[in-house]
Specification:
It is a single chain. The protein contains 13 helices and ten strands. It is an alpha+beta fold and 572 residues long. Strands 4-5-6-7-9-10 form a six-stranded antiparallel β-sheet. Helix 1 crosses helix 5 and helix 5 runs antiparallel to helix 11.
């Protein structure tokens, strides 16, 4: 027969377990209702029904940064709250973002340069007036010693549009007076009208330097518009990424507060159990280490959240962000409101080939090189120009009383107007051909080779860009598809971790576990919640990234490019 003491040992152990269970239950009830207050109804949504209700201290600590008398994070209680949606962030950012403001001027500059290139065909107006009075000693009676001359000419000329060559039209009026012994009229009036044209037949025909500059500057203007569109897409992508980063860090901060609250509750429970002799001092130290670790994580999470807010404020408000700015940014869009997309990488690549601004720029670079090549080939030709000059001259004057030789005056008028009217009676014209070529024409021939190399290079760069776009679009599509699956997987992991934590708490209540084991399960839940937050952030960023790689960001956000281009953001 077994001794009575041996039979009573199981009963004593059972009584001890029951006592420990009652003490633990009492501790849990006291923690759930601090200072006799009603239990906090706010339950973590990510934790579902399995999560412990957050205490009033934790909720207030998240607002003020003070938890159980300890300042853990900067206080947000007195900060003005800025509640902003993603659409408002994008709209405001387009108006105030300094990158947008800087890049907006490039199309304007390129547009002015393109218009200025047409100035090569502007007629050049000229006006010249002169008076000469010269007294020259002479040794012959055939030359006068006193000469007075008044003359003036007016005209305009320039490049012939498109065709090439030059033109010049002018009028000249001259009055000659003085002691002119061999002139039958004095003063003498001459009126001259001239037209000159120099037209190329080979070199510079159609493909001259002015026209090349006009074509290339127009292409550069369109490229600058695409470049600004590309910069605008990058800014919008940056705002979206920063916005969802603020959302994610706010969620991480909330999880950190909840984790600290849980660890503190376990520490309180362990201290009670230690006081009644249920657990050892080692387990109290382990629980204290868990609280300290979560306080550190909370501080890091709060700093990350502040940094994320600054990035968003900088992108959205530009110079409004000051060194002493104090504001609490609250992103109002819910990351849980998501839809599942059907991904078609092939269709996305085709959209990118149509909408990508950088690909349009690469194609225009090819067009610029083609213009340069046509010009270089033309400059390789010999110069063959036809020059045509046509003129009219009129003469008038009064009989010269001092004439000594050939003094019969011609039958002309005696006023300057008569000289002008008589021009039609004296036409003259000249046609001339001019041929020239440098031998061996090294510069022009090498220029053709150089531009051919540049054209091949730009064509290869465009092809390389197309390949990189294919890879980038496929990667972005794959990332979006994976993020959609990742949200589902992260949610399953979070639910499973919450259930494991609930089961471990029950085991702790029955004395079958330790606070350290509960902290490990709680740590697993925190990691699962963090994965869910990261999965939602990745999903939102993946959507923006796919739009960016497709070049469809502006269309997806319903942003009118022309309106953005015409805006003038304030510089402060």
């Amino acid at each position: 027969m077994r001794p009575l003491a041996t039979l009573l040992k199981p009963a004593a152990a059972l009584l001890n377990s029951a006592a420990a269970l009652l003490i633990t239950a009492a501790a849990i009830v006291s923690l759930a209702l601090p200072s006799g207050a009603a239990a906090q109804d706010e339950t973590d949504s990510a934790g579902g029904g399995a999560g412990r209700a957050r205490t009033r201290e934790a909720v207030e600590g998240e607002k003020t940064g003070v938890y159980r008398g300890r300042r853990l994070t900067p206080s947000k209680e007195n900060l003005p709250e800025l509640r902003i949606a993603l659409s408002d962030s994008i709209e405001t950012g387009i108006k105030h973002n300094l990158n947008v403001e800087v890049q907006r001027y490039n199309p304007m500059i390129a547009g002015e340069a393109a218009e200025a290139a047409w100035g090569a065909y502007d007629p050049n107006f000229s006006l010249e007036l002169g008076y000469l009075n010269a007294e020259v000693p002479t040794a012959t009676i055939l030359q006068g010693s006193d000469t007075m001359k008044t003359d003036g000419n007016i005209g305009f000329g320039g490049l012939i549009p498109l065709l090439g060559g030059t033109y010049q039209v002018g009028y000249t009026g001259i009055e000659n007076a003085g002691d002119m012994p061999v002139s039958a009229i004095e003063p003498e009036y001459r009126s001259i009208v001239g037209l000159g044209v120099d037209v190329p037949l080979l070199k510079d025909l159609l493909h001259h330097e002015a026209w090349m500059t006009i074509e290339t500057s127009a292409l550069q203007h369109y490229s600058s518009l695409d470049s600004f569109r590309n910069d605008l897409i990058d800014v919008i992508f940056g705002i979206e990424s920063a916005y969802w980063r603020v959302v994610a860090t706010a969620e991480q901060l909330r999880v950190a507060w909840k984790s600290l609250d849980t660890a503190q509750a376990l520490l309180d429970q362990t201290e009670i159990q230690y006081e009644v002799g249920v657990v050892s001092k080692v387990e109290v130290v382990q629980a204290e280490a868990g609280v300290a670790d979560r306080e550190f994580r909370l501080i890091v999470a709060d700093a990350d959240h502040g940094n994320a807010q600054d990035v968003l404020l900088d992108l959205v408000y530009g110079t409004r962000l000051r060194g002493d700015s104090r504001v609490n940014v609250v992103a109002t869009d819910n990351p849980e409101d998501y839809v599942t997309y059907d991904i078609d990488p092939g269709a996305s690549v085709q959209k990118a080939f149509v909408h990508r601004p950088d690909l349009a720029i690469a194609r225009r670079t090819i067009q610029e090189d083609e213009v340069q090549l046509r010009f270089a080939k033309n400059q390789r030709l010999p110069g063959l120009n036809v020059q045509f000059d046509y003129g009219l001259q009129g003469l008038a004057g009064k009989p010269n009383s001092g004439c000594q030789f050939g003094c019969t005056p011609p039958t002309v008028g005696d006023t300057f107007g008569d000289a002008f009217r008589s021009m039609g009676d004296n036409p003259s014209y000249e046609v001339r051909g001019v041929f020239s070529i440098p031998i061996p024409n090294t510069a022009a021939r090498r220029r053709v080779r150089l531009t051919r190399f540049e054209l091949r290079q730009s064509s290869s760069q465009a092809k390389r860009l197309e390949q990189s776009i294919i890879v980038a679009v496929r990667r972005a599509a794959r990332a979006l598809e994976a993020s959609q699956r990742g949200i589902v997987a992260a949610e399953r992991a979070r639910v499973a971790s919450a259930e494991q934590l609930r089961a471990e708490r029950i085991r702790l209540e029955h004395g079958e576990s330790t606070p350290f084991d509960v902290l490990l399960k709680e740590e697993t839940l925190v990691q699962a919640e963090s994965q869910k937050i990261a999965a939602l952030e990745t999903y939102r960023t993946a959507i923006a990234s796919l739009d960016r790689e497709q070049g469809t960001t502006l269309e997806s956000r319903k942003i009118q490019f022309d309106e953005v281009l015409s805006q003038q953001g304030p510089l402060r």
